[in-house]
Design a protein that fits this description.
249 residues, RAB7A interacting MON1-CCZ1 complex subunit 1, 9 helices, 2% strand, 2 strands, flat
């Protein structure tokens, strides 16, 4: 177990160094300080400091938490930049790069069989990210080109990455319910509200099925509604929703 933990520490340290170099490039290109990049860099500096200590004593959970926080802040900055530029024609490679960054924490968890706490933390961070993107309240002072655009704005969905985060969250809830429902840490609370939904956000011990259903129902609704012409695949989301519906505790 100690050897496995040490391996995780080394890998997180390597990924942290790569992310820090990327953040430095983003900061230089932006030409000004950005709150999210500053916060991401600070998290990675703390991660580097902890990794410099005895690797056998380092807590992989804390390191992965810092790395995940940094990645969410970094990708949020880049997502906003893509939105501001109205997703230029050459943005597909950038989106793939962001997806790769966002996938690293999940890959680490799967490769090292660190599921229970990390699934809960991962879902928590993604939901925080989703909730941070506040929906736009449409009124006479807000102009839009068509009803589909208005629907997306009112749901707080501004980019493809937001939809991917919703799908990731739903999938993690599926794995959590299937494999880790009886292994949740005590007193672990998460804000289970989802940005743009019609219900109020609240805190309670994480219910994988409830959270997953809320997120994936919204995902399917958006993909088969305003984004129908974009041909987003909802097959996996519907299969997971069916699993949630028929799962018994």
């Amino acid at each position: 177990m100690a050897a496995a933990g040490s391996s995780v520490v080394r890998r997180v340290e390597e990924l942290g160094d790569l992310a820090q170099a990327h953040i430095q490039q983003l900061s230089e290109a932006a030409g000004e300080d950005d709150h999210f990049l500053i916060r991401a860099s600070a998290a990675l500096e703390k991660l580097k400091l902890l990794c410099g200590e005895d690797k056998e004593c380092s807590n992989p959970s804390n390191l992965l938490e810092l790395y995940t926080q940094a990645i969410l802040d970094m990708t949020y900055f880049e997502e906003n930049k893509l939105v501001d530029e109205d997703f230029p024609e050459d943005s597909s490679e950038k989106v793939k790069e962001l997806i790769s960054f966002l996938s690293e924490p999940e890959i680490l968890v799967k490769e090292n069989n660190m599921h229970p706490k990390y699934l809960i933390d991962g879902i928590s961070y993604l939901i925080q990210m989703l909730n941070f993107r506040c929906p736009i309240q449409l009124n006479e002072g807000v102009s839009f080109q068509d009803l589909d655009t208005a629907k997306l704005l009112s749901e707080g969905i501004f980019s493809d990455i937001h939809l991917l985060a919703m799908m990731y969250s739903g999938e993690m809830c599926y794995w959590g319910l299937k494999h880790c429902a009886d292994q949740q840490p005590e007193n672990h609370e998460v804000d289970t509200g989802v940005s743009g939904a019609s219900y109020a956000a609240y805190k309670e011990p994480l219910d994988f099925r409830e959270v997953g259903e809320k997120i994936l129902k919204k995902y399917v609704s958006v993909c088969e509604g305003p984004l129908k012409e974009q041909e987003w695949n909802t097959t996996n989301a519907k299969q997971i929703l069916n699993f949630f519906q028929h799962h018994t505790n």
